Amino acid sequence: MDKYPEDVQDAAENEETEKFAVVVRNVKSNDSRKTLEAESIVIQSPWLKTALGQILKDYPGIACELKRLTFDAPFQPFVHRWAEFTEFMRSDNLDDTTKEHLKMLHDILQYEIGDSIKAFEDYVLNGVITFPHLWMIFQPGSLVLAAHKGPLSAFELDESEFMENQCGKFLQLRCDCVDYGGKSFGRYTEKINVPEFIGTKKIVGLNAYPLAFHENPAAVCAALTQRGQIFEKLAGHHYQAYEGSAITWDREGNEVPIQVSGRIVVDIASFNSYSPYRVRYLHDWHAKDLERLAANKAERGVAEDGSIKLSPYHHMLARSRTRGYSLKMKKWLDFFVEQVTEITWNTDAFDKLVLPDDQKELILAFSESQLEGTSFDDVVSGKGKGIICLLSGPPGVGKTLTAEAVSESLRVPLHTLSSGDLGSQPWEVESGLQRILDLVARWNAILLLDECDVFLEARSAHDLERNKVVSIFLRTLEYYEGILFMTTNRVDNIDPAFQSRIHVSLEYPDLTAESRRVIWRNFLSASGTKADVSDEDINELAKLQLNGRQIKNILKTAQLLASRKKSPLRREFIDVILAIEKRRPGAPS
Prior knowledge:
alpha+beta
C-alpha cells in the first residue's frame, strides 16, 4: 500500500504505558476458569528490577538490568523461585515502594500461576509428576541424577525444553558434566531426553530426576565425589588393568558395548590425536566454577604438575567414563572409571625365562638404561637414540616371552605389532608405523614387532612395492627413541641395511633337555591346580622334542581332561594328549 490504512489501531504500548510498574499482556484463555490469561509480563519498575535481581540471582538466561525485562508464560523462573520470592517479600529492610510493587507482582502471578504452584507443591508432597508439568521440578542450575551413558552420574542443569521427533514428545535436559580434554579440565554439555508418559509417574522412576528427590542425597554425593577423584587421577596417561564392559562405536557413530580384559593405557590426549572417533570439545569454566576452584586452591593447594585441583563439587560432576587404548585388542575405547584398576605385576616372569644368565643380564641392562634416558646421540641430533634388539630362532623357544618378561620386570606397557596391523600399502605402513612409534615413545613403552620378516626381508630388483615398505621401515627406525624387540625365525633373509641398525642380536637355539625340564616345571607350578606328576615323569617328558609353546598347549589340554574327570593332573592325561598330537597331520614322529 502507498498510504497509511485508516482502520489500523494504535499500538497498545506507548508513552503512557511506560509509566506503569508492570504491564500484563493478555490473550484469550483455553482454561475454562479464565477469560483471559497472561501471554507475557513486562517489568518496568526499577525497584522491581532490583528486587528480582536478588530473587532470580544466577538463574540462567535472566538479565534484570535490561530496560525492558519481559517474562513469557508459563513464567518458569517464578515457579522455580516461588519460595525465594515469597521469602524476599517478608524481608524487614524493604522500602514502601518496593513492597507495594512486589505485592502487585505477587497478586498478578498468584492469579496466573497459582494453580501451577499448588499442583507443584502437591506433586512434590507425593513424589510424583505429570509430563506437562515435568519442567517444574527441573530448575536451571540444580543438580540432576541420571544413568546417562553409564552408571548413575550427577549433572548441572542448564536448561530444559519440550521437543518432539518421530518417536514422540520428550523433555530435553541440557546438562553439564566435568570432563578432561587432554590438557585441562572443563565442562561438557550432554543432552538427556525424558520421554512422554501418561498420567503421573514417580519422580525417582524417571530416567533423570533432581538430586533433591533421592532418598539419600548425601550418600550419592559422597560416592560420586569419590569416583570423581579417581577420574582426576587418571588425567594424563596411565598404564592400568581393566576388566569389564567398555564402549566402542560403529560406522554411524552409535555406541556399542564390548567386553575388555587386560592391560590398557588411559590417555585422552592421544585418543583425541590418533583415534578415528569423535573428539569431545570442552567449554570453559563458568564464573562460579572459577570461584570454587580458587577457594579450593587456597584450601588444598595445587597438584604436583602445577595444575589446579578440582573442588569436591567438580569431582561430583565428573564423567563416569575416560578414554584410552586397549593393548590386547588394539582398539581406542571409552572405559568406565570404576572398572579401571591397578596392575598386578608378575614379579618372577623374568626369572622363569629359560635363557643363559649373561643374555638375561644384557637384555635387562640396555632396557633399564634406555628407560632412564641416555645422553648418547648420533652426529645428527635425535637420530639413532633407540635400542633395537633382534631375537631369532625356531618357534616356541621364548623370543616373544623375552619382550613380555622385560616389560613386566620394568613395569612399562608392551605394544605388540604385527605386519597385518600396518596394512600392505607403503603409505599405510608409513603413517601407521609413525603413529605407533609416537605413542610408544609417549607411553615410555616397549614395542614388540612379532614375526617381522615382512619388514626385514632383503630387497630385490623386481618387487618395487616391497622395496618401498622396507625402505620406509629403515628410515623410520633411524629416529625411533624407544626400545624395540623384533622376532623372526628367518634370520638368513634379513636385508643387510638392518644389520647396522640392530644393537643386540640374540640367537635362540633349540631347547635342550634341561631347558625343557625347567619349562615343564614352570608351567606345572603356574597351572594353579593340583598336579600329581613325579620328577621321574618330568625327566621323561623333557626328552621329547617339544618347544615351549607346545608344552604349554599340551599341559593346558591335559588340565581340561583332568578337570572333566574331576581328578588331579596326572601323567596319564599328558600321555593321552601326546598320543593325540602324534596323529595330527604333519606332526613329527
